[in-house]
Amino acid sequence: MNIIEIAKKVLKTEAAAVAGLINKLNGDFEKAVDLIYESHGRVIVTGMGKSGIVGKKIAATLASTGTPAFFLHPAEACHGDLGMVTTSDVIIAISNSGETDELVGLIPFLKRFDVSLISMTGNLNSTLARSADISLDVSVNEEACPLGIVPTASTTAAMAMGDALAVALLMKRGFKEEDFALFHPSGSLGKKLFVKVSDLMHSGASLPLTRPDVSMAAAVMEISSKRLGITIVVDKDHKILGVITDGDLRRGIERWGKNFFDMPSVEVMTKNPRTVSGGELAAKALAIMERYSITSLVIPDESGRALGVIHLHDILRQGIA
Questions:
Q1: Residues 101-122: pLDDT tens digits?
Q2: Could you tell me the domains of the chain?
Q3: Contact 135/119 with Cβ under 8 angstroms?
């Protein structure tokens, strides 16, 4: 028994099952997309066993891409959960055979209350397919298991068809990256699109500030105590004159030796430092840092006064990269 060859055969079989769906797409798929798009309710996905697990994934994908959806267990539906279903909803029922008892048992209710039904089945002559308003063909030539009975290729095909529906609806709705982030505020994309510089910057008592006439010895103490690798040189009105960084300290000691610590900050500072607005996204601050190979940015207010500092580590700790 060659394990690698077995695995390759499984993948080839499942890949062929998905590829085979391409020629099965027709006007019914477009009708299904239009039906869901024009619905004023939700998409309720249902299925038993492995089909139910696939249904949960399809419902989750729809919900995260702008189509309100949830999974309804067909057995629980027959014991009271049908109260969740309204006439404005669209049901997607998944069954490879199209004869699953729990799904077939829902049909009288759906017909009685005129709920739209889309079937996703491997048998277009089945009870479920014939009872549906629209039936999508997800039949496969063979399962990937040698017994031909374990749901493998068939569940892969059903999941791929669900993805095709979700993406078609996404495009039809004009769903954008920003919309996706709304439903994923804790994900990396959500953080990139919603975390602002002002959310991460150091300000107030933690802001390292130095007057231009102060000695470099005092400036070093300010940099060390605030632990941001930088101090902002400001005038009496807190307007930004420049910055002194760890790099400036190393270069200054190398250039001036021990006399460096007696020099006034104004003679060592870097004028016109890179800045970023507090209202900008943290991702933009990161892009500026990468472009100029620096680790900190100063945040000025509208009058050019020092408002805050954002450090590279503050951004990376948020998972923004």
A1: 999 999 998 888 899 999 999 9
A2: 3-175 (3.40.50.10490), 197-316 (3.10.580.10)
A3: yes
